[in-house]
Amino acid sequence: MIKKIDHLGIAVNDMKQAAEDFARAFGIVLGGEEEVPSQKVKVGFLQVGEVRLELLQPLEADSPVGKFLSSRGEGFHHIAFEVDDIESDLRKAESAGLTLVDKTPRSGAHGTKVAFIHPKSTHGLLVELVQK
Ligand code: ZN
Question: Which CATH class is domain 4-131?
Answer without folding.
Answer: alpha beta
